[in-house]
From TrEMBL:
Signal peptide: none annotated. One of its GO terms (molecular function) is hydrolase activity. The keyword Glycosyltransferase applies. This is Alpha-amylase family glycosyl hydrolase.
């Protein structure tokens, strides 16, 4: 058996390990990886370039405890709500970190294997996975300074003794890319004397040392546990910072990409329907590299979309949004984009680098401040503080224009943003507060001292049910958005990999064409991005003459192929030659 030929899986795994750990016995390490992951070396490889999604896939992003009801585990409350109110609207639920944590609303994980008792238990997660696809957060770059691993690190015992990345404070670390203003290194007293540990994000979030293969093996154990509990979609949090080489930027390094390929290899062999998403809030061209050659992330976040779309809607000019989308190559089969306009974090500004001028960025920032937003900063390699993200709820971000301030078009502008996000190439993802039009939570900011809390409101279920059942903007948003999701899920032209072409209709009208994979359904999406009525002629769209064209949003039929269309402020149309049938679970 010593000389038994290696299986294709073993060969591929060893190749990844040799790139990451060139000085180790990678054959022996590969055996440990497979054993840890409970994976048979003879497992056949899944067929490449499979689309593990279609037009019916829409994701909900939420904390496990955003919805709370007395005497009920928040995970159970959430499950009941999405099952009763959103079964026709979403297919997947992204549960933000639901583990015991010490800071950063869950992203300082103390124990990766336990559900925070204040949220519920593993059975709640498994039950949710029976009704919806569940995406879990793999907080892979760092863990809590209050974790058992870090306590063991300080005491010099395992597991944890060499789990954390140490650096020499006298080394030249000026090139390191930082997303925060805190000092990079934290001084720690250990059994082996004074050490300086690496903290990309905060001093409570200590970076893990993947140069130690035991850290990789530990995360393989964790991922296997999540798979056993029903999680099939994996969000690799802050993964761009994973590998460090002092003297470099310590972001997007080759070893980081290789580790993602290795995790993809293991996960898709164990559960072929699984999906990996990389969370890399970085400039657009760097972000695109995480697709690899369709062998890294299945999906990447379209991080440039939120700032460019919001900028378009508050300025009335879609030029930058259009130019950016025209520069984006269609994703290969088996990969696609995750589109979002709002998230639990703020509106990232690094993804606007090279896309908005300094003056335009300043105008956007000042407009968001006017609407109640806060600005978080990072430190550049030159030591300067630079705006990193805008912290604001989507409802408030779209409350007016840069020129006039708050106006009467807030709801129309909000729905237009949602309509763009849902129609673009990729899988749409709704942050839960975007379903309700939740406002800025300034009380929570004051209580926590953190700007990101502005968009992390906790809803009491009785209060939420009340506002959704009475004539409020919350009810109007919820009913309108869920109606749009149901329309969207029925259209083959909205398949995440369906053809997309951006159309040239000036700076006030944003428009594109989608065509289904079988080429039977064509759909023209046209949006008025301004607070004034805009007109266009249907002749500009090249409608197929023999087909009937209907706006799926208003259900208006357009028989005159040369007719003139007037769009009111922020109104949009989804003109289709065929109507997909909307399914209902009712």
């Amino acid at each position: 058996m010593e000389n038994a030929p290696l299986s294709p899986l073993e060969q591929r795994l060893i190749a990844h390990l040799q790139t990451i750990y060139p000085n180790l016995d990678t054959k022996e390490l590969a055996e440990r990886c497979l054993t840890t992951f409970h994976l048979d070396p003879a497992t056949e490889s899944p067929r490449p370039h499979r689309n593990l999604w279609d037009q019916s896939d829409i994701m909900l992003i939420t904390y496990a405890d955003t919805l709370r009801r007395k005497e009920e585990a928040p995970l159970e409350t959430l499950h009941k709500f999405v099952k009763s109110k959103l079964s026709d609207s979403i297919s997947a639920v992204h549960l933000l970190p639901f583990f015991p944590y010490s800071s950063d609303d869950g992203f300082s994980v103390m124990d990766y294997t336990t559900v925070n008792p204040s949220c519920g238990q593993w059975d709640h997660v498994s039950n949710l996975s029976k009704d919806f696809k569940v995406m879990g957060d793999l907080v892979i770059n760092h863990c809590s300074s209050r974790s058992l691993w870090f306590e063991n690190y300080k005491a010099g015992v395992n597991p944890g003794a060499s789990f954390f990345y140490e650096a020499d404070p006298s080394a030249d670390l000026s090139a390191v890319v930082r997303p925060r203003t805190s000092s990079l290194l934290r001084e720690v007293q250990t059994k082996n004397g004074e050490k300086h540990v690496w903290c990309t994000f905060s001093h409570d979030q200590v970076d893990l040392n993947f140069e130690n293969p035991d850290v990789l093996l530990e995360f393989l154990r964790i991922i296997h546990l999540y798979l056993e509990k029903g999680i099939r979609w994996f969000r690799l949090d802050a993964v761009a910072f994973l590998w460090k080489v002092p003297g470099t930027s310590c972001i997007n390094l080759p070893q980081t990409h290789e580790i993602i390929r290795l995790l993809r290899l293991m996960i898709e062999h164990y559960a072929p329907e699984s999906v990996i998403i990389t969370e890399t809030n970085i400039p657009n061209q760097e972000n695109l590299t995480y697709f690899g050659n369709a062998n890294e992330a299945h999906l990447i976040y379209n991080f440039s979309l939120p700032p460019l779309l919001i900028n378009s809607l508050v300025t009335g000019n879609c030029s930058h949004l259009k130019q950016w989308l025209m520069s984006m190559a269609p994703a290969q089969q088996g990969t696609t984009y995750l589109n979002f306009v709002a998230s639990h974090d703020g509106i990232g500004l690094r993804p606007t680098e090279g896309l908005l001028s300094e003056w335009e960025l300043e105008t956007l920032i000042n407009t968001m401040k006017r609407f109640g937003g806060k600005i978080s900063s990072r430190t550049t390699p030159q030591g300067e503080a630079k705006p990193y993200e805008i912290n604001i709820s989507l409802w408030n971000a779209l409350s007016g224009s840069a020129q006039q301030g708050p106006d009467q078009w807030q709801f129309a502008r909000f729905l237009c943003a949602v309509g763009v996000m849902m129609a673009l190439e990729g899988v749409p993802a709704f942050y839960i507060h975007s379903l309700f039009g939740t406002e800025n939570d300034l009380d929570r900011v004051n209580n926590t001292g953190h700007y990101r809390s502005i968009n992390r409101h906790i809803w009491d279920m009785e209060e939420l049910e009340h506002v959704l059942n009475t004539p409020t903007h919350h009810q109007k948003v919820f009913q309108s958005v869920t109606k749009l999701t149901q329309i969207r899920r029925a259209q083959p032209a909205f398949h995440p990999n369906a053809t997309q072409y951006i159309l040239h209709m000036g700076e006030n009208l944003f428009a594109f064409w989608r065509q289904s994979l079988d080429r039977r359904q064509s759909l023209f999406a046209v949006y008025n991005m301004t607070d004034q009525p805009q007109h266009f002629n249907l002749s500009e769209l090249n409608l197929i003459a023999n087909d009937d064209w209907t706006d799926l949003v208003s259900e208006q039929v357009y028989e005159d192929r040369l007719g003139k269309v007037t769009l009111m402020p922020y109104q949009f149309v989804w003109l289709a030659n065929k109507k997909g049938k909307i399914k209902s679970s009712a």
